[in-house]
Predict the structure.
Amino acid sequence: MAPRRPEGAGAFPKPVESPAPTPPDPAALYAALDLGTNSCRMLIAQPKGSQFHVVDSFSKSVQLGQGLESTGRLSRSSMNRTLGAMRICMQKLRRHDVRHMRLVATEACRRAQNGERFMEQVARETGLKLEVIAPEEEARLAVISCAPLVSTKTDQLLVVDIGGGSTELVWIDLTKVPRAERPRSIMRLHAGFRQDPGPFAAARVVDWISVPLGVATLRDQFADVEEDAGRFALMSCFFEENLADFAPYAEEQHRDGFQIIGTSGTVTTVAASHLGLRRYDRTKVDGLRMTSDQIDMVIRDYLSLGPAGRRADPRIGKDRQALIMSGAAILQALMRLWPTDRLTVADRGLREGLLYQQMSADGVLEDGPY
């Protein structure tokens, strides 16, 4: 006897439709755009507790500062590349109907003779109005973006933001802040490095500096040095020389309770190489702690590969391979100077700082733990 066919067998499965996601209220959206020497990056986000949820993003290597070191001007080709990226950003902002935004430009537009004229062109062709921010604000925004990564055990904090055209360093004393409040005290710096703490114990900014050397500008300064290892050593020593005016440079620091947080494409690329990631994964990189030995090992690997090997290395990527050694030279100098064998890797920076700043000013972030 043939087996009976169960009722309903062979029927097409009934589709289960998940409800369409509710689009976010445009009034609750915030945007932050960072136009740097090398990259154009944007985030669109909405507040979520004491953090934010990213709704849309954009990132592209535009090399706006290419040739700036030798000519003092933004080239026509670099401006055209950047305009193309800005048009995409404009389309995203319009699609989401974003009403709260800050769109900023940094070192390349600060230094270029035709920087202001270029920003006028951006406004004319895209409707987006860029503002050039001062180095102090750039440093401050990088610091507050890293607040969630600050350990409650940290007494002395150094935040380093290695950009395309400049590098910002901020040294912060947290010894008078209760341990549980230390990450939040960093967030309060959005109002300025020098502030009246009011009822709160304040993080004290010991010193900060903006060195006009980033991955692009430092590379360009030593482009005429042909030997790979020699060029790297010269770049690292030259960067260290430019830290002489930074107050903590000459002071001996205690290893215990000291934390360095590094935020930049260089730092995240070194972290990704250490992890052996052939495809970048932010969740594995952001917040990673690397020892100085692990960083040195990655840098030695880069040097052994040579320029051709670095170009072919999927861990570095096409956008980063031409800049990784100048960034590594900066990173090595920093790890050589200060007494720590650990670096906290931050895949965050100016964009996140701009979002935190806007949301904090509007009072839309909850007063909860990070």
User: Anything to note?
Assistant: The mean pLDDT is 89. The radius of gyration is 23 Å. The CA atoms of residues 154 and 257 lie 5 Å apart. Residues 136-351 form a domain with the Nucleotidyltransferase; domain 5 fold (CATH 3.30.420.150).
